[in-house]
Amino acid sequence: MLDDTIDYSLPATIGIQKLRTFFSAAFRLPIFAVLFVDLSERESVSPREFSTAVETRSILMAFRQSALAFAALWQFVMVFTAFGTLGRDGLALAAAVTLVGLSALLARTGRHLDPLISTGMAGTGLWAYLASGDIDSALVFAACWQINFATCLGIILLLRPYGAPLTTGITVALVAILALALPEWGIGTFVSILTTQLSIIIAVRWGVSRLVIIASEADAIESRRNAALQRTRLVERVSMELVEESRMLHDTAINTLGAIADGSADIAGHRYIQEQCRRDVKILRALQARTTRPIPEKLEEIFHQPGFAIRRSGVADDEIAHCNQLISASTIAAVVHVVREAVKNSAKHSGADHVVIDVRMSEARLTVTISDLGRGFDPRTPTDGRGIAESIIGRACDNGFHASIDSRPGAGTLVTVTVPLDQAGTGSGHTEVAGGAKNAPWTSAVQLYQRSSELWAIGVTAVSVILTAAGGTNHHMALFPMITLMATACLVYRFIPGFQYHRLAGVLLATISITVFVLSAAAVEFGSDGAMHWQALASTGPFILLLAITPRRSTRGLAAALWILVALATALVGLSYSATAAQIVLVAGAVGIGFCGLWAMLQRLLATLGREVVRSELEAHEALLQAEVEEAAQKSKQRWMDAGLESAISLLDEIGRSGRNPASQLTRQACGVEERYLRQLVQISPHLVNLSRAFPATLARARHLGVAYFLQLGDVDIRDEETAQSIASYILGMLLKLNPGDELRVSLFPVGDELQLTLVGESITSPDFPFARVTNTQLGAVNLVEMMFA
């Protein structure tokens, strides 16, 4: 028997699915996308990333602060019209309006009052409607704008997806209450009010969304630029750390070992040499352990150089101490190291029995000279490239001051150090970031302001078209030329090349603004008929374009003064109809002029908040960069652990503990071996960050195995650490195949856009590197391996 029961669930399910499909497609339409998109600011999702919301946050903050300030100021107009229309009966309304204004001011410091502000403005606007009941009164006209501003504020403050629906719901409820309470106003009035509110919601939401999109695009570009800049700065910071460590190694252990090896240490005496060796051991162990190295903190330490006589001249101690407040801590340390190296060079090479350190100070600079009357030298003569080029001139250049060396054979040596002074006193007590943030350009502020001005002018023109089409009051057909002038201003601003920079552009826009105001007044018979339909914001469109292209306060002030004079003259025309009409004209003038003042405030806030946001971003970025530098520095610790410093440490330690005689021939020979090895080690340029981490281990391994290892590197680093480590591991493997006394020659130089690694030696096999093109050539008993990689 067949079951005749009808299953109604299937059609219902299909119907629900079709309904979901319909709404899903509908909400993908541009209008719904604008109304329901989340425009609230988003922070970076990871503390390891650069923030990507600098521009977006700035413009949203500026809009919010400006809107709340204007809302608070507008309440004064509401208080004025409440007392002007209701007298003492308007006291309660005035108190409520005042409370709303105070809440708007308080809301500028936090977001917890945001939902109450627009609701409070709409509520007091409704109260004013009901309290007056006269559609032609000044209070109703002001209340109309109170509600308009409440709608704008709601859209600006409530950027979440529920912001537009919530504001729309409040608007519909408000109009429904008015229609029920004041049916004598006619259904057309309420349709007009609803049309106005919905137009404001769509226009403001669209404008804010467009600005957020523009700002987000700028943020994305800035984020990519900052990420690239961060990588560059990270490499620079790590490179500087390695450079300073190499200089420290040269200025201490290498110099000491060299002085013992060539016998010049005998001049200073064993006691000084032992003290220096003990100090060098501490520094070498600090390099290996990555602990804090002793850093000079005061300029007075330039005179503390044991083992060699120093005579000083120039300014007294108190003036030198004052310089400590005018120079950054890193610069002080660099100056002291430069002076110490100059004194060491004099003690080692000059043959003089003392040096003279002279310190002079002016308002702009500090000058330190180190001179001796020794044998001198020819500066053109090639040297090891470290003592002068790196420890003196290079260190000065890297730290923002200047050092020069003047010497001739038989005429002594003069080293001059010139350091600029910061008379503002922002030396060691301030960080590098503070100075950078102060001068950091917020490059998109002007563009965003100009774009927002253009969007406002377009939006207010579009709203005027909608309101006119909806049947707004249009005496003398004044709305048509008014809209024509508004559209002309937008088109000229947008499409005529060079208009924004023409000297008559401000005059033209000011004339259009004033004319639009007069035409909007004429459309409502100067406030005497249909004042609720007065498009008082129409004149703000061209005037805001004027503000965008005219930064001079005098020009802006003159244009605003002309508008005020025209508004007063228009009020006199309204007075010929009635005192209420004149009052309405003044309120309309306050709407337009006040809103343009708000826009000027917005421009200032965009710049101010933009700088503040950039400053906070720079501080966060600097903290992140410093953390990454520390992390990279910990990796660099391996460089010194792999470098084979133990034998040098052991030798210096024995001399420092009097376990070895620094004057003995065996000690001098051992020091010469260690000096040559450390010099070879510091020849690996610290600017090659990845190579300088990976290749010291190959030097140490070759030395341990007794292999004659010759390493030559160009000035281009391997791009990533993994590749550098892979190549170093390959070379270490080749070293293990060689016997003591065998040779291995390795060179790495750029060839075009690639790097070429060449190995020459016996028993060399080709590596299996996926990132390189490898060739292996047999040249008798010697293998030649060449590989090319990016």
UniProtKB/TrEMBL annotation:
Which Gene3D superfamilies is this protein grouped with? Histidine kinase-like ATPase, C-terminal domain
Q: Where are the transmembrane segments?
A: 67-84, 90-106, 138-159, 166-183, 189-208, 455-472, 478-496, 503-526, 532-550, 557-575, 581-602
What InterPro entries does the entry give?
HATPase_C_sf, HATPase_dom, Sensor_HK_TwoCompSys
Q: Which residues form the Histidine kinase/HSP90-like ATPase domain?
A: 334-422
**Which UniProt keywords are present, listed alphabetically?**
ATP-binding, Coiled coil, Kinase, Membrane, Nucleotide-binding, Transferase, Transmembrane, Transmembrane helix, Two-component regulatory system
Quick one: signal sequence residues?
A: none
Q: Any coiled-coil ranges, and where?
A: 611-638
Pfam families in the cross-refs: HATPase_c
Single GO MF descriptor: ATP binding
- The protein's name: ATP-binding protein
